[in-house]
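Model: Ready when you are.
Researcher: Fold this.
Model:
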Amino acid sequence: MNLESPPQIRAVRVNKSNIYSSKWLWFGIPATLLTGLACILIYNYHALFSVEKLVAGINQDFFIYLIIGVVAQLVDGTLGMGYGATSTSFLMSVGVPPAISSTGVHVAEMFTTGASAISHYKFKNINKRLVTYLLIPGVIGSVVGAYLLADVIDGKVIKPFIAVYMIFLAIMIIIKGLRNNNVKKKTKNLGILATFGGFMDAVGGGGWGPIVTSTLIGRGRDPRYTIGSVNAAEFAVSFASGITFLLFQGINGWQVIAGLIVGGVFAAPFSAFFINKIQRKPMTIVVGILIICLSIRTLYPFILKLF
């Protein structure tokens, strides 16, 4: 009697095993988020574990930061970029100091990008192979950038140069979006692209989405899977840079961080859902216009200084 399973049954079992292991991998992210949150609470014990401070902190300012987190995450989760630029610009406009804004945004992104990655996985917006290629190089670039920003260089010096690059890239994206035959081309040097994107994201306060997402879409990749995959990889990139900033700068402005986290996590599933409702051509054009607007906003202060 042959007790060996037929090849078809064995293949099905292997496929099911891969599916289950993949699910455990992706849904293990919430455990990482909770662990990270616990570390932050322990790290900032004296500031957080005081009933008086917690009650006093839940005020009008907290809800303003929460709304900023919702808006920034909707922009980033739907278009694949803009969280840092959107949240920082809003925070600065309501009077939050630059140092607190920078730390708050990076730490909050540790959680919002995790929620976004889970949401994109749930809505099947992710190309797992692309995430694999972007993950490790992006993390390396972000850690190096965060360390250099903390001790060596000023990220503001590099911002105008990357803004010019993004404007040029955005024009190319819009042209490709208007064409009916936007042919997909092979994207080379993904590791270099991810390293550069992670580095600039940490140094310049943003750039992972505009650099990585816009480059891949400019090469003809499908916006839905590109945005979902880049957002999924961004979780690891943000977590790495966030931890680095905490180690070298400490944590300030917990009210800002908490508001951004709550608002961003709440908005993440909605932004992932909207990707499936937006057609490719309009989405590509919107991405290009968004990059131009954000880049012009970055260049504006430097242009004023020249004149």
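Researcher: Now this one.
Model:
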Amino acid sequence: MDISFLPSGYLISTINENEYKTSKETTFLVRALRVKNTLKKKVSIKELQFDIISNDVSVQKISYSGDILTARANQVVKLLEMIGKKQEGPLAEASRLANAQFFMGQEEFWNPDNFVSGNELDHQQETGIRLEVFRLVSINPIDELECTVIYELDNEEKKETISIPIKAYKTKNEYIFPLKGDWLVWGNCDDTMSHRTMHSQEFGMDLVKFNDDMMMPQIGSTPNKDFKMYNKEIIAIADGKVIDCFGNSPENPAAPDMLPDEEIADIAEKYGFIVAASGNYVVLEHDNGEYSFYGHMVKDSVKVEKGQTVKQGQVLGRLGNSGSSTGPHLHFHLMAGPDLMTSRGLPCHFTNIMDFTGQKVEFIQKNLMVVHTIEGPV
């Protein structure tokens, strides 16, 4: 029996310590888990167990069996219906491969021809689950997840166990927030079914701004210019080099109205899937193997070119409503490589933001949090 998982190597946790510093809430995600029968005979999967471990001590056990395990496997089947089978036509196939990379970070993890949702596995057949979120409170951080598959072979119960390391990640460079002023953080890693469902965007966020009445102006179809954040300057979070950018994609006309499907398809065919999804964007390479991404900018507002070096705080472009977007906002995330499709998402820590109470914040832990940038030395 073979057990494998994504993201490969280790899982990244986020840790939120309570105000009394007596306990820690740890959250982490198994993007995908595959159980493959490498034995010569049929096996029957009886149970899938997770043992959450802190300092070599088991903190909590979770198990799935029977109908629940089948239901979780059926979620994978639905995903494979979209990304698993080669499509007719170059654009449809390019879209399938792009979606596979967006969700999984690679073109194939499960074999769609051998995947089954039932608990009986013939030789080379496989099953599995996706998007398993763990969130629990403990005295010490979680540092290991043991995954055990209990199965029956020739009327004898057996088991296979793997250990998955859990690590907290601290950014290796000092970063400032990509916008100035006060901003509402939307769909960050605390919202586990938002950006976190995508590989490079696991710790991504959308940034929007309230109007002066502390409300969003959107009522029905709302022009981009009616949003206070529209056309605001986007700045580099640190010194870096522009390794990719695009600035010629048309914007969606209003919120939540998007461009016609035919025009979106033309953009994808002409410029590729990244432009169709992200609109006008910039990717910066920073020291120590970290890369920042800025998406959905105003058409023709991108002020940098590929290969150009930039300084921290330098204007990259302006906040817009291009690409797969239903309203003006900045999509931002940090990643461990240059490729939006396959690079691993990373948490980003900032040096110049505070919450509404005036407390300095490094890592934006909670979804729908309002943050304010600190002017001057930090």
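Researcher: Key takeaway?
Model: The chain has two domains: 2-168, 182-373.
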